[in-house]
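Example for tutorial group B:
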């Protein structure tokens, strides 16, 4: 038994080290993005004010929100990497999900601000107010923003998928939403400059249109992560894979009370499995260990599983498969 304890401790230590490396890489990626956002935001505000472009000022505000969320992501990841303790037995992974949800909610606020600011200028224009025409520096800032933000998206999403980080995925899409907004800004500013006259209204119209794209991204990010904070089950595909493992593991005669969720980037599952009532405790434990090992192959080595072993009732041993979260038997 001591040998097994030693192996378990070593595996836990390796898992903790892997998680620390993962969080460190995620923080580094976010710091690169944050430095880029600081420089880009300053230039876009300057270009928007000097270039008489409301669309560019709105775009700069979007970039400023990127900087704010970068800070939130870094803070969240630093807390999430803390090891389990006496008051957080499952670790601090939920902080990562909370950071991602926060990004989504910030995007909602940013989208509304862009929409309202652009709409006010459009209404003012149709009431006879003369809007100043944007200049070339605003157009140059829009083009530069597209290039930098698309690069940041690709850079971040590669590491987000590699590290399986919801916070980084959310931040990557925040970068892309900024790139999309800059495309619209470029079109609006470019049209206003090239066509002139009454077409200067294209600048604020572009800002209004962009807000809807940002709303869509914000909704997707917020819904997914707030749902996880509310302990939503794993996706149906992963859930079925877990059921298949339970059904096909040798020695498991049935299972019930299967519950799943996510804890940060880790998948978790609780289940009661039934084994031959005549087995000794060592053999029963080996079956539960086999189930756990197979679950980790599907859900990742950092998965957290609670497997309760029960003796199979003779009267029910020949029952059929009865459905999800009920007693399920294998004939």
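The residue assignment follows.
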């Amino acid at each position: 038994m001591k040998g097994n304890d030693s192996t378990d401790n070593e595996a836990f230590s390796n898992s903790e080290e892997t998680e620390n490396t993962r969080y460190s890489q995620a923080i580094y990626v976010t710091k690169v993005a944050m430095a880029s956002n600081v420089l880009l935001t300053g230039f876009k505000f300057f270009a928007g004010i000097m270039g008489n472009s409301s669309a560019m000022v709105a775009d700069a505000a979007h970039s400023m929100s990127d900087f704010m969320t970068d800070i939130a992501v870094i803070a969240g990841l630093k807390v999430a990497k803390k090891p389990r303790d006496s008051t957080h037995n499952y670790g601090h992974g939920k902080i990562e999900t909370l950071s991602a949800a926060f990004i989504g909610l910030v995007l909602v606020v940013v989208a509304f601000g862009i929409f309202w600011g652009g709409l006010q200028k459009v209404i003012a224009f149709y009431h006879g107010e003369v809007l100043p025409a944007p200049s070339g520096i605003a157009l140059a800032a829009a083009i530069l923003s597209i290039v930098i933000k698309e690069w940041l998206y690709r850079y971040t999403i590669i590491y987000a998928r590699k590290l399986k980080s919801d916070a980084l995925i959310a931040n990557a899409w925040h970068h892309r939403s900024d790139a999309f907004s800059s495309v619209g800004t470029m079109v609006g500013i470019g049209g206003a400059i090239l066509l002139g006259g009454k077409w200067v209204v294209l600048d604020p119209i572009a800002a209004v249109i962009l807000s809807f794209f940002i709303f869509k991204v914000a909704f997707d990010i917020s819904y997914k992560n707030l749902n996880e904070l509310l302990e939503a089950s794993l996706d149906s595909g992963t859930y079925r894979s877990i059921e298949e493992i339970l059904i096909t593991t040798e020695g498991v005669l049935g299972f019930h009370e299967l519950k799943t969720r996510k804890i940060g980037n880790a998948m978790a599952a609780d289940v009661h499995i039934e084994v031959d009532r005549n087995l000794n405790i060592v053999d029963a434990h080996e079956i539960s260990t086999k189930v756990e090992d197979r679950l980790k192959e599907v859900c990742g080595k950092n998965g957290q599983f609670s497997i309760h072993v029960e003796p199979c009732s003779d009267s029910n041993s020949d029952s059929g498969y009865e459905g999800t979260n009920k007693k399920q038997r294998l004939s």
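The longest strand covers residues 254-263. Compare this with the pattern of hydrophobic and polar residues in the output above.
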